[in-house]
Structure formats: C-alpha cells, structure tokens
Amino acid sequence: MAVEGGMKCVKFLLFFFNFIFWICGLALIVVGILVQVSVHNTFMINDASASGAPIVVIGIGVVIFFIAFFGCCGAWKENYCMVTTFAVLLSLIIIVELAAAIAGYVFRNKISTVVQDSLTEMITNYKNGTEEFRASVDKLQEDLKCCGVTNSSDWRSFAPDGNSVPDSCCVNVTANCGKGTMTDASKVHTEGCRSAVEALLQKNILWVIVAALVIAFLQIMGIVFACCLMRGIRSGYEVM
Questions:
Q1: d(Cα 167, Cα 42) in Å, to the nearest integer?
Q2: Cα 63 from Cα 160, distance rounded (Å)
Q3: Dihedral of the CA atoms 82, 217, 54, 154 (nearest 10)?
Q4: Which of 14, 39, 62, 209 has its Cα between 20 and 30 A from that of 157?
C-alpha cells in the first residue's frame, strides 16, 4: 500500500515537472528569439559563431516543448514505453545542453572580436548601405548613446570635412546636428559603441545561462521521477 501511494505521488510529480518543462521550453524559445533578434537586427552581427548559441537555445526549447507534452502523456497513461522514451530523450537533451554550454564558454572570448569587426563593417558600409541598414545603425547609436566603434573619431571618413558624424551620434538629435561636431562632447556622444554592445550581449548571455541552469535542474529531477515511475510500472504496481 505504501509503495502504491509512493508511485502515485511519483506519477503526479512527474506530470507536474513535465508541465514546468513545457513552460520552460516555451521560455527558452522566447529567450533564444530575443537574443537572436538583438544580435542580428540591432547589432547587425553576421558572424556564424555569434548566432550559434541562441539558435541552439531555440532548438532545445522547441524539443523540450514537445518532449514535455510527450512526458505528460506517458505519466498520465502510465505507459512504460512512453516514460522510458521520455527519460532517454531528456538525457540526450542534457548532453546537447552541455555541448552548447561548452561552446558558449569557448565563444565568450570571441565576443570582443566579433563586435569590433561587425561595428567596423557597419561604419564602412553606412554611406552605401540601404535605408533600412542606416536606420538600424542610427537606432543602435541613439539607443546606446554611443558613436563609432571606440569613439566618434571612427566616423572621420563619413563626410568630406572629416569632422562630421551621423545625426544619431548627437546628444539631442536634430537635422544636421552632427555636422562639424565630431569631437564636441557637449553635442555628440564621443564614447564608442563597442563597450556598450559587449555589455548588452553579456547581459543577454547571462539570461540564457540562468535559463539553461534552471532547465537542467528540472530535467535531472524529471529523469529521476521518470526512472522511479518506470520501475513502479515494470514491477506491476497500480499507481492510480
């Protein structure tokens, strides 16, 4: 009787944890998409390694989303095959997450280089870029209150006078406010965008790490409960 009650408890705990998995999978998808959008649309970073981490996070989120639903069905129906498959798939997901974490750790030292190269390319292509591209650059500089890569002087080739910057560099943005004001700290932001972008990327990566740690803990608990339920089902105990 005690075993029966214990298995019933494990069954509902597994069902509950799978519901949490489902929510966390959805959260990973959202976090991954937000990071991906910020990396590409806001910063225009095209380096493949930079987009690798959020894409992996989105992929893991989608897989967890469906595996959690599969696990809920297995727990509710007390189906040994479904619960076993759930435990195996969850174990594989943990391995993938571990690989993604290692890749993220290795990539951390590349952030500065990727940002430097991308911002330099941004400035080089600004004049001949599309209207949408220039609008993205302007939005980046306005939102982060920065100008250029390391400082406003990076825009020296922007205009023939060698002393003008895009209006988005201005403290108070108005038409032609950047003309002849490259080094005037009272009128334009002289600090470069590299440090601001790096700080924002680090913050996004931190959120990804926190989300991954929470998911990993829940996954391990899910595997433990799944194994307990598998043992109970295989032993022939009625858990309803």
A1: 18
A2: 54
A3: 180
A4: 39
Residue type, 143: D
Q: What is the pLDDT of residues 181-213, one digit of tens each?
A: 888 889 999 889 988 888 877 777 777 777 777
Neighbours of 31 (CB within 10 A): 20
What are the residue ranges spanned by the domains of the chain? 2-112+197-234, 147-192
Q: Which amino acid, residue 37?
A: V
Q: Which residues contact 129 (CB under 8 A, 6 or more apart)?
A: 137
Residue with structure tokens 């069954």? Answer: 11
C-alpha to C-alpha distance for 144 and 38, rounded to whole angstroms: 13
Half-sphere exposure of 22 (CA within 13 A, CB side): 13
> What are the φ/ψ torsions at residue 190 (nearest 5 degrees)?
-90, -15
CA angle, corner 76, sides to 29 and 72, nearest 5?
5
Are 24 and 94 a contacting pair, CB within 8 Å?
A: no
- CA distances from residue 100 to 3, 56, 62, 94, 115 in whole angstroms, order as listed: 39, 7, 15, 10, 21
Distance of CA 194 to the CA centre of its chain: 19
List pLDDT tens digits, range 126-169. Answer: 888 888 888 888 988 998 899 999 998 899 988 888 889 999 99
